[in-house]
# Entry
Amino acid sequence: MRKRIPKFRSTQEEAEFWDTHDSTDYLHELEDANDVIFVPPDFLFVELNKSLWRELVHEAKRRRTTPTRLARRWLKEKLKTARRRLDL
# Structure
C-alpha cells in the first residue's frame, strides 16, 4: 500500500515530519514543477568568529553605523579598488 502525505496543522509539524521521513516514499503524491525559476539571493551570509564580530561591532559603533552597513561599505570599497587594479 502506498503511503499518504498527512495534512499538517503547521509548518513546524510538517518540518518535523519530513525530518523523520523519506520523500521518495511519497513520490506518487508529488507533482512535477515545470515552471520553476531560479532567483539568486540578494544577500550573503558571512561566517565570522566571535572576535572578528566583536571588532566589527566596535568599529561600527565608533563610526555610528551598523555592522551590516559597515561591512557592506568595506566590501564595496574593496571591490572598487580591485576593479581599478584590473583596469590598469
Notes: The two ends are 69 Å apart (CA to CA).
